[in-house]
Specification:
The structure holds two protein chains of two kinds. Helix content of chain A is 33%, strand content 24%. Chain A contains twelve helices and 23 strands. Chain B is α+β, with helices and mostly antiparallel strands. Chain B folds into four domains: 72 residues, Elongation Factor Tu (Ef-tu), domain 3 (Beta Barrel), CATH 2.40.30; 253 residues, P-loop containing nucleotide triphosphate hydrolases (Rossmann fold, 3-Layer(aba) Sandwich), CATH 3.40.50; 73 residues, Beta Barrel (OB fold (Dihydrolipoamide Acetyltransferase, E2P)), CATH 2.40.50; 129 residues, Bovine Mitochondrial F1-ATPase, ATP Synthase Beta Chain, Chain D, domain3 (Orthogonal Bundle), CATH 1.10.1140. Chain B is 33% helix and 25% strand. The chains are: A alpha/beta, B alpha+beta.
């Protein structure tokens, strides 16, 4: 039975309150305004006073508009027909295809039982050495790309999506610029990947609250496909916009903010989404790659900070390169012992030397005389940056490892590198001993 | 008689419930919504309205839904069968839930935390007519490698007389094993299980001591430089990516405690999975049995309900105290206490309390202090000693230790293992900062040697800072050698490879042996003609020590490598 109320008591920000009976928490409602129909969700109940957040924003809502409670929380359709389709932040078609009305599933379902999770063990090869060698991506990992605005993070996301061996790609755009949305669509169409992709796109010009649903929609659909045995890669860009939408609602609801205006439950809210990444035993998996733009390149900003504690590592994108410092894949240890036995040693050793190069580079910039050792480090640093770090480098892992030994051998003597003797014996290029 | 109330408001995981009659602070209740029965706890009472935090998602709840009050505070079940279990924050067994409900954790389901059908072999330890008090063992059952004492419940006050006790034999936890009588002649029938409210510390002991016995973790930088003691407390604050979790996992694996309780509080589920999938296969070198037999995991990961996160640390502490009461050494690892503090903050925000610093409530400090105060080495009522050691990680926002949770924790703990982002980024693991960290406990290594080594580290750091300003050429040879020695100590002793089977854990004997050799190098006077020669020497020496770390203790390779090092050092002396 549909319950209809026509008395809007207050309109504050994007939250309206109505007097209604029998509303349940997180129930969905439709508001019929002169601009059309908008969805809203119950976010607070106090006696008969019901607060609803309006996805399309409260602009143009009149105090006598009709509020119809739908009797269920947010749902999304789920079927094979969704592949290749593009939807908006409420799950309505953005392309010219039909509405989703069959096989509806609830979004934001219960968490996975930790006892049913399995240890991730499958590496996702991307042919980007800074990922494959130094911070391997693993099936079921959740990993953000930390970056400032203007970096090519969406290009990196698209490239990983195309090169990674997964069954499906689900793209969630939150506050995505329109041209970036077109970029994703065109790239995937050009590379012939659109038939295995689903888009949920909330653009920067849409009402901000509508973006709140996007991660849940993507992940609910991904979860169903994963349970059917598909390996799903979910791309979310950009989660800082998602957090800002949360901030807006919580301030409107007069909650005490914890840090720079963000709500105290920001960590739990982000975790509820990221923790959907999972490898189901005897079924498929969900891997999440997200973009988190850091306002002012500040990693201690609440959004990247909370994200870092939730995700299993992060890639720092700076000056068009994945930074070796700060970038981290927490799951790499689970896969990089099965690749080649010099993988781990190269991973640590190269970075330790690169750290020393950075120090030397600082000294050089300050005008100190360079010792023999310093000169070696400088040469190494330059080679490392041009032959490994550059994003245009596109080689398989094994080739990247071989190239690492070549770089080392062209700069150092074996004992200067602190590699284990047995590895040096086996991998140090023989012509350069 | 059951009491009922009605929901009048819902805000996030907080509900307000109007009731009649009496309600306890911290009383448990159930929200009855359709078929579901959802746990909630009273956290504030004002007039006839109880404010309750709901331990599950509140989606779909309505105003006017019924709430049933239980008259009990939130409690855990204590009895044999806890070891090896994986519980959520409310002591639901996750493995059993998975068996029944599959991949997901549906709302409103509860299961018995202990197996009521399992049969235990009970051995009585008292006779009819004996006088006993609470906490006194009536008998024991064998739980894995431990004698699990069946004790007089901790909430029974006064002196009791044994009226009857069953003979040695097989019983389930619900079978009656003893009948006791108090002075007024009141009779109590006891089985092998009883419950205890998690927020009340168990204080059934004669005396609490200053912690003095080292708790070996087999992590060199901890045991040698910043040791922890049985019954002590320590904290590990660090920014994300600094290796907190790896450190906790290593400690849970190698620490020389009888029982390890891991409270995974609001952290990633993936981290728990590694523990719970690998521990059953790993063998505890001390006992020769599976590591899981000495482990309990209380896991309320970040996507599980927030209110249960608050409960999970108390649940873990209560289970720890219970095993301590049997005279065992228990180590509780809480990862991470910041998530617990955040859960407190969320609740406080919903209660519209006046916020303190960073919106944490004013009582944050006292809550943290209370929690760590549950640690201690104690003499029990039957004479044995037991201990509960608590180690908590802290995840400070932005890696900045000047925040409320870190500061409140530092006030009450006995050791501080601060992780540094710089060390982590330079891949120097464990990334415990040797200059910032401290411990109030004593190491098994002679104090003078530790001081000497610390001195080198401090001076080496000074020289390094200076070199950044004046350059290498502006540094004297003596200073440069101090710097090289500090780097050497760092590389070969402070750093430890967690992923190498040998280097991951260093026994106290090996630590003493290797450390004295390292100190020998540090104390030696060297004479080099130039800095490149000095650097070359120390890099080679470093390489040899690192190789030495990878050799098994007492093996031929170990001795050969030591010989290589001695010869190398000798050669340097001769060449002077």
């Amino acid at each position: 039975m549909r319950r209809v109320y026509t008395k809007v008591i207050s309109i504050v920000g994007n939250v309206i309150t109505v007097k209604a009976k029998g509303a349940s928490y997180y129930e969905l409602a439709q508001i019929k305004t002169q601009r059309g129909i908008s969805l809203a969700q119950v976010i607070k109940l106090e006696g008969e006073i019901v607060s609803l957040q309006v996805f399309a924003g409260s602009r143009g809502i009149s105090t006598n508009d009709e509020v119809v409670f739908l009797g269920h929380p947010m749902q999304v359709g789920f079927s094979q027909n969704m592949l290749g389709r593009i939807f908006d932040g409420c799950g309505n078609p953005r392309d010219k295809g039909p509405l989703l009305i069959e096989n509806l599933i609830e979004i934001a379902g219960p968490p996975v039982n930790p006892a049913k999770r399995i240890i991730p063990s499958r590496m996702i090869r991307t042919n980007i050495p800074m990922i494959d060698v130094f911070n391997s991506l693993v099936v079921s990992q959740k990993l953000p790309i930390f970056s400032v605005s203007g970096e090519p993070y969406n290009e990196l996301l698209a490239r990983i999506a195309l090169q990674a061996e997964v069954d499906m790609i689900i793209l969630g755009g939150i506050g995505l610029k329109y041209d970036q949305y077109l970029f994703f669509r065109e790239t995937l169409e050009r590379e012939g990947a659109m038939h295995r992709a689903i888009f949920f796109i909330h653009t920067a010009s849409d009402p901000i609250v509508e973006g709140l649903m996007v991660p849940d929609l993507c992940l609910a659909v991904a979860e169903k496909f994963a349970l059917q045995g598909e390996d799903v890669l979910v791309l979310l860009t950009d989660m800082t916009n998602f957090s800002d939408a949360l901030k807006e609602i919580s301030i409107t609801m007069e909650q005490v903010p914890s840090n720079r205006g963000y709500p105290g439950d920001l960590y739990s809210q982000l975790a509820a989404r990221y923790e959907k990444a999972v490898d189901f035993e005897n079924a498929g998996s969900i891997t999440i790659l997200a973009v988190t733009t850091m306002p002012g390149d500040d990693v201690t900003h609440p959004v990247p900070d909370n994200t870092g504690y939730i995700t299993e590592g992060q890639f720092y994108l700076r000056n068009g390169r994945i930074e070796p410092f700060g970038s981290l894949s927490r799951l790499k240890q689970l896969v990089n012992d099965k690749t080649r036995k010099d993988h781990r040693a190269i991973m640590d050793g190269m970075i330790q030397l690169y750290a020393q190069y950075k120090e030397t580079e600082e000294k050089r910039a300050m005008g100190f005389r360079m010792s023999t050792w310093d000169k070696k480090l400088l040469k190494y640093g330059k080679l490392f940056e041009s032959q490994m770090m550059d994003l245009s480098v596109n080689i398989p892992l094994e080739e990247a490892l071989d190239r690492s030994w070549q770089i080392l051998a062209s700069c150092f003597r074996p004992e200067e590198t602190s590699f284990r003797t047995d590895l040096i014996k086996e991998f140090w290029p023989k012509d350069k001993v | 008689m059951d009491k009922y109330g009605k929901i009048i408001g819902i805000n996030g995981n907080m509900i307000s419930v109007v009731f009649e009659g009496n309600v306890l602070q911290n009383e448990m209740g159930y929200v009855l919504s359709g078929e579901e029965c959802i746990k909630a706890e009273v956290i504030k009472i004002r007039n006839n309205i109880a404010y309750m935090q709901v331990f599950e998602n509140t989606k779909g709840l309505k105003v006017n839904d019924t709430v049933q009050f239980t008259g009990q505070m939130l409690s855990v079940q204590l009895g044999p069968g806890l070891l090896g279990q994986i519980y959520d924050g409310l002591q639901n067994p996750l493995t059993e839930l998975a068996g029944k409900y599959g991949f997901f954790l549906p709302r409103g389901v509860t299961m018995n935390p202990l197996d009521t059908k399992k049969v235990w072999h009970f051995n009585p330890m008292v006779k009819v007519g004996e006088k006993i008090v609470k906490g006194f063992p009536l008998g024991y059952v064998q739980e894995g490698i431990f004698s699990h004492y069946i004790m007089v419940p901790f909430d029974l006050e006064g002196e009791f007389t044994i009226e009857s006790i069953v003979n040695e034999g097989d019983y389930t936890i619900q079978d009656r094993v003893a009948v006791i009588k108090d002075r007024e002649g009141k009779i109590f029938e006891l089985d092998m299980v009883f419950s205890w409210p998690i927020k009340i510390p168990i204080k059934v002991y004669r005396e609490k001591f200053t912690p003095t016995h080292p708790l070996i973790t087999r992590i060199r930088i901890i045991d040698t430089f910043f040791p922890i003691c049985k019954g002590g407390t320590y904290c590990i604050p660090g920014p994300f990516g600094a290796g907190k979790t790896v450190l906790q996992q290593l400690t849970s694996k190698y620490a020389e405690a009888d029982i390890v309780i891991i409270a995974a509080c609001g952290e990633r589920a993936g981290e728990v999975v590694e523990t719970l999938r690998k521990f059953p296969e790993l063998i505890d070198p001390k006992t020769g049995r599976s590591l899981m037999e000495r482990t309990i995991i209380v896991c309320n990961t970040s996507s599980m309900p927030v209110a249960a996160r608050d409960a999970s640390v108390y649940t873990a502490a209560t289970l720890g105290e219970y095993y301590r009461q049997m005279g065992l050494d228990v180590l509780l690892l809480a990862d991470s206490t910041s998530r617990w503090a955040q859960a407190i903050r969320e609740v406080s925000g919903r209660l519209e309390e006046i916020p303190g610093e960073e919106a944490y409530p004013a009582y944050l400090e006292s809550r943290i202090a209370e929690f760590y105060e549950r640690a201690g080495e104690v003499e029990l009522v039957f004479g044995k000693r037991g201990s509960l050691t608590i180690g908590g990680t802290v995840s400070p926002a932005g890696g900045n230790f000047e925040e409320p949770v870190t500061q409140a924790t530092l006030k009450v703990v006995g050791a501080f293992h601060g992780l540094s982002r710089e060390r982590a980024e330079a891949r120097r693991f464990p990334s415990i900062d040797p200059l910032d960290s401290w411990s109030r406990y004593k190491s098994f290594i002679p104090q003078e040697m530790v001081w000497q080594a610390k001195e080198i580290l401090v001076r080496g750091n000074e020289v390094n800072q200076m070199m950044k300003v004046v350059g290498e050429e502006g540094t004297s040879m003596d200073d440069f050698l101090v710097y090289l020695k500090a780097e050497f100590l760092d590389s070969v002793y402070l750093q430890q490879n967690a992923f190498d089977p040998v280097d991951a854990a260093t026994t106290p004997q090996r630590q003493e042996y290797v450390f004295s050799k390292v100190v020998e190098v540090l104390n030696r006077n060297f004479n080099f003609s130039n800095k490149d020669e000095a650097r070359k020497f120390f890099y080679e020496l470093r390489q040899m020590f690192i190789d030495w770390n990878y050799k098994e203790w007492g093996s031929i390779e170990f001795k050969n490598q030591e010989k290589l090092i001695d010869d190398f050092l000798q050669k340097q002396l001769v060449s002077i």
